Every structure is written in structure tokens, then in C-alpha cells.
Predict the 3D structure of the following.
Amino acid sequence: MTPGSPSSPTTPGQGPHAGQRLLHAGAPLDEASMVMIMVHGRGAGPGDILGLSGEIHRQGLCFLAPEAAGWSWYPQSFLAPRRANEPYLSSAIHQLASLLQRLETGGVPRRRMILMGFSQGACLSLEVAARHQHRYAGVVAFSGGLIGAELDADYGGPGLAGTPVFLGCSDRDPHIPLPRVQESSKLMERLGGVVTERIYPGMPHTINQDEIRWLQSLVDEVTD
């Protein structure tokens, strides 16, 4: 793999997250019909979330998992004022947006990209999709919501143009308040996403099989 290519073993971007590892599983990128960007949570690493690839794998699907510096995309709660999470938050958004752009430049259309994350990675995935609006194959947030003490009234941009968007979370998640999940669902819908919101009573901070089945169905629809 050559530096700067879409399949580079380090991530593009700027700031504290630039040059971190980029792990791969599944189909080789130059043979892939679809790419899933898998964004890990706080205190985990790309290898952790990449472990889900075995349950989602389909022929032609390439998985890419970027790594956060220090295994944390931003230092404070996702509900803190955005300035409290700088420069890490802007670096994280830029890193993922740059990776998506390099994939597109390398020949993968946005309609063949799924942006998926868990916890802190779910929050970041939603934020990147809202700030870099395109028609994606999907945006999947397992236990997450849009970032900030208050949500932007208008993110601006061309809209999500029917992108399937999934938000799944517990009704009593210790890190993700239910009202923020619901608020995020409504905002992603206003941006043009086709939103599925699923709230699981009493579920711990984790990913469950119903959520994985939803993601499997999404992948099957895109690869058919």
C-alpha cells in the first residue's frame, strides 16, 4: 500500500488524529463493490470494532477501521460545548471526511460507502454525515447522537438525499441520553435521511443482535 492512497495503512487528515493506523478486513479495496468505515468508541481500538466484520461480511465488502489518537476521538462528553473537545473533535471530523474523500477520488462512490460507529464512534459518524452531506449507502449509529451542548439549527449542505440512517440505543444508556438520540433522529430526517430509530429497554451500553441484523439487511440491499 502506498502512502496517500485510499488503502494507505495510515489515515489522512490533520491535527492530533492524523497519521493513525487504518485497519482493513474483507475484500481488497481495489476489488470492493462497497466500503464500510467502522469507527470505534472511547477506550477501544480499530481492531475491536473490526471484530464485527465477521458477522456482517459479504462478498465484495471492504471494511476500514481508523484509529483515534490515544483511543479517544475527543476528551470530554459528546454533550459538552464543542470548543471543550478541540482540537481533537475537528481533527477527528477532518480525518474521517478526508478518508471518505480519498475513497471517492479512488473510485468508490458515496452511494457505496457505509459510515458506522459505536458510542463515541457513533456520535462522530453522525456528525461527519451531517457536516459532509451526500447520498451514502448508509449511516449507522450504535449508541450515539449528534455532538454538542446544543445541536446546530442548520448544518447546511445538499442534504442526505434518502440515505438510510439507523440510530439504536438503550432507553437508559449511561453515556447517551435518550432525548439526544431522539433529537438526532429528527435532525437527520430533516437533512434528508430515511431514519430508523430503535430504542431497547434496559439494554446495557453495547450492540445487540437486532442492530446487527439491521446492518446485515442494509448491506444485502446495497450489494444485491
About this structure: The chain has one domain: 15-223.
